Amino acid sequence: MQLHTLTIHEAHEQLKKKALSSQELTQSFLKRIEEVEARVKAYITLTPEQALEDAKEADRMIARGEMTALTGIPLAIKDVICTKGIATTCASKILGKFVPFYDATIYRRLKTAGAVTLGKANMDEFAMGSSTENSSFGPTRNPWDLSTIPGGSSGGSAAAVAADECIASLGTDTGGSIRQPASCCGIVGLKPTYGRVSRFGLIAFGSSLDQIGPLTKDVRDAALMMNVIAGYDPKDTTSVNTGVPDYTAFLKDDLAGVTIGVPREYFVAGIEAEVDTAVREAIEALKDLGANAVEISLPHTDYALSVYYLIAPAEASSNLARYDGVKYGFRSSDKGDLLNMYKRSRSEGFGPEVKRRIMLGTYALSAGYYDAYYKKASQVRTLIKKDFEKAFQTCDVIVTPTAPTPAFRIGEKIADPLQMYNSDVFTIPVNLAGIPASSIPCGFSSAGLPIGLQIIGGHFSEGKIMQVAHAYEQQTGWHKKRPLL
Amino acid sequence: MEYEAVIGLEVHAQLLTKSKIFCGCPTEFGADPNVNTCPVCLGMPGVLPVLNGKVVEFAVKTGLALHCEIAGHSVFARKNYFYPDLPKGYQISQYELPLATGGYLDVEVDGQERRIGITRIHLEEDAGKLMHEIEGTVTGYSYVDFNRTGVPLLEIVSEPDIRSGEEARIYLQTLRTILRYLDVCDGNMEEGSLRCDANVSVRPRGENRYGTRTEVKNMNSFRFVREALDYEINRQINVLESGESVAQETRLWDTGQGMTISMRGKEEAHDYRYFPDPDLVPLKLETAWIEIVKRSLPELPQEKKERFVRDYSIPRYDSDVLTSSKALADYFEACVGEFPQPKIVSNWIMGEVLRMLKRDSGEIEECPITPHQLAELFQLLEKGTISGKIAKQVFEEMYTTGSSAGEIVRSQGLEQVSDETELEKVIARIVAENPETVAKYRSGKTKVLGFLVGQVMKETKGKANPEIVNRILQGKLTS
Predict the structure, then answer these.
(1) What Å distances lie between residue A202 and A107, A197, A235, A436, B22, CA to CA?
(2) Mind listing the pLDDT tens digit for each residue in A384-396?
(3) Model confidence pLDDT, tens digit, residues B196-247
(4) Hey, are the CB atoms on B44 and A314 less than 8 Å from each other?
(5) Count of domains in chain B?
(6) Same domain? B407 vs B428
(7) Which structural domain range is residue B250 located in?
(8) Who contacts A405 (Cβ-Cβ below 8 Å, separation ≥6)?
(9) Which residue of A has its CA nearest to B276?
(10) What is the pLDDT of residue A1?
(11) Per residue in A141-165, is it b (16+ CB within 10 Å) or e — as a string?
């Protein structure tokens, strides 16, 4: 048995039976990382010593009978989540050698549950991008084809799972950054409802859109991760104080009585034929499982991309103002006076995509433009939200492609931001509406690249999404396919 | 031409909560640099603000005391600008939807009541403090102290209803008294817990349109507010009189030179790019809760002043002085509670008590004599145990030693001598020792009686009951 191919629930059974120790399991991942990491480049920082320490502690927890579903499970953490004592870079030069002296609430929860940290996963700088090419540490490669991108911005988190460099990982999703990489890497990704998971310690990009979520090898693992990370946090007043169900209770094998909505605005020109076919076949498979499919309309879909590229950069322009060279992180050696220090430090510290978005956002918030851009975008955002609310009166979940294309080649779109932004055209509306959605594998292109199916639910309906995803996954088995590395 | 000044004030009041507005750090003043900080108020990556409920309560109290409408739904906004004392690169404030709007404050200027409108009251966080020298030495580095970062501030914006520097001073002082009554701000302008900026313009009297305004900053005492604004009004009038126009700019009051100096023009004004803070959900306040806060409001200075005149029959002037702080008013009422002669109590507090406190630059809270002790002194005076003259002496002793009046009178034998036999003996001796004076009196120069009384008082170390001395002495001289 190759230990690094186990899912969380499979490894948990072994650990529970004491057929396996967390230290053995962790060692096998460290060995796997040694074998494939040079080709995949999923990690920014590896923490083998920390991992073995964590594993030892996990084994003690198991021995004491204090085991949780994540005890002893080796994970990768996207490098946008603050980890006390471990460098947290956001893949940006501007954070320099920043080491947080506090934990993100979610990281603390994982530690308390006994999870093992293998390292910090690569990403697009400040989570801005769809390919992980915008990392100041260099791009991550897609384990299915090393010449293609793993998606982004949680590309490192997705590639690490697909390449068996961890059992599961945490990503973050502002406009598709969990789902699109999950789609590109043929794994399961879930963006929870806005407010379901604490953002404290998540380095902000677009505060009204950001959510942390799991990237896993199957839906059951996503449920197990959600059981730990979901819930109210008094340190995040945008987190919602409602009960957290046991998400594994939703995992059933049939879909009798479930209505799935198929939005006509998501099956349009620009979607690659193989993707279209795979998603339509998936809808048929869902019907075979007992689901009822109805066509629905989300009429404001066309505006989503424009709205997103005003709101997210506007928030980012403010969120990223704290990186000024004064207190921590990078300061230009060409300091001069205060204004020069700001200008040089920020010009040299941020990459081109981040600078582009800071400029976009600054412009959208400027006096004289605020009403036409930020305010108007906020109003249209409300219309997009209402589209979904209306749709969920007639269906339980909505299914769409996760991305219009499978993974593209590294370098293919990096020079054309608008084309790059289009990668998230199907995932962005979900963030604007604050609702949950998952991406699960639903087939492969002729080039052998994974295709993702997006399942969208109403507020706090993660359970419903997982029910549909799990039934589909058990029926089709796409998730069992692994890349050869 | 005759001109009229138009002034609106923006007052920043530091709230007296124990912890900061968006984190649990203490707000205490005077700690070592950067001791009262945490990842949240340092603006570290990934942290989030959590609103302090006490801050909201304080703000609502103030809003209600200033007759404002309290918003059931208000929104925090980010004010974006770069400065090293602002760790996040933005200040959390309120912009489009503030906590309170549309109130007023009545002030008394030259015996006339004037109503100054309150445009809005909103909450925000304070910034840190830059230090360009350490213990008086310039090192070439600037240092930042983030202890003050995140201390809660209330911004109270008035309508442009103020017409002179003196009126602005009175408005500010009246506002300060209310804030102190509410116990939400200590009102210390020198330490910066109460700050004031002004928008000033002038226009020909009778004109309805506003003139171009300047913003005046750095007025850190009540006197400077009056002086700076009067200076600025005159400056603007002179500019207009010389045929030029007032430039829209920010000006600083320079205490040393006694003038306002241009700091930055309109072109250099910031674009703060306000937008709703996505990290904080809108602040929702229920009417029922606002009602509870309303019922918890203490009696405010205006009401108290009127009640004192009505219930204690003291003059308006006395009432003004006694209600200038809640603690002083409480002190007065505690004394009257034990010694129900309000005018005597008022005279003593306004005279002796305030004189001693002023000498020591102390506040009534620091007065070493408790109301109970002061009442005891009044009782001794009332019963005739001590004379008025001795009472003042005893008062000073009480103030210095903290002992009670009874103890001092007993231990120093200061009881008034009303024993007629004893006084007769002393008076007989004085009469015998001063035959010439006695003769003068008997020849009709009755004014000399005072001298003889004085001699008796001297002999008895001031303890003789002056009424009895007078009576016995007159009897002896006319017999």
Answers:
(1) 10, 11, 12, 18, 17
(2) 999 999 999 999 9
(3) 999 999 999 999 999 999 999 989 999 999 999 999 999 999 999 999 999 9
(4) no
(5) 3
(6) no
(7) 3-289
(8) A271, A272, A275, A423
(9) A315
(10) 63
(11) bbbbbeebbbbbbbbbbbbbbbbbb
Is A78 known to be catalytic? yes
Asked which of B256, B289, B322 is the last residue of a domain, the reply is B289
For residue B276, the cross-strand partners are B77
Of B51, B82, B280, the CB nearest to A321: B82
Order across the sheet with A43-46: list the strands: A43-46, A116-121, A74-78, A168-173, A211-216, A188-191, A437-444, A450-457, A397-401, A259-263, A292-296
Catalytic residue among A28, A135, A153, A239: A153
Write down how long chain B is. Answer: 479
CB-CB under 8 Å, B46 with A370: no
Which tokens is B461 given? 């170390």
Task: Identify the residue among A339, A365, A373 best suited for mutation to test binding to B, counting B beta carbons within 10 A and taking the highest.
Answer: A365
ipTM for the predicted complex: 0.96
Of A135, A157, A177, A439, which one is the catalytic site residue?
Answer: A177
Q: What is the CATH number of the domain that holds B467?
A: 1.10.10.410
- Euclidean distance between CA atoms B58 and B66, whole angstroms: 12
Domain match, B277 and B308 both: no
Q: Decide if B278 and A208 are in contact by the 8 Å CB cutoff.
A: yes
Active site residue A183: no
Active-site residue flag, A317: no
Report yes or no: A251 at the B interface, CB cutoff 8 Å.
no
Answer with the one of B355, B385, B412 that is the final residue of a domain. B412
Q: Which residues 6+ apart lie within 8 Å of A454 measured at CB? A: A179, A183, A399, A400, A401, A402, A426, A427, A430, A437, A438, A439
Provide long-range contacts, Cβ within 8 A and 24+ apart, for B205-208. Answer: B205/B2, B205/B3, B205/B4, B207/B4
Domain ranges within chain A, ordered by starting residue: 3-258+395-480
- Catalytic member of A41, A78, A120, A413: A78
Rama region for A127: left / alpha / beta (φ>0; ψ in -120 to 50; rest): left
DSSP B368: S
Asked if the A3-258+395-480 domain carries CATH number 3.90.1300.10, the reply is: yes
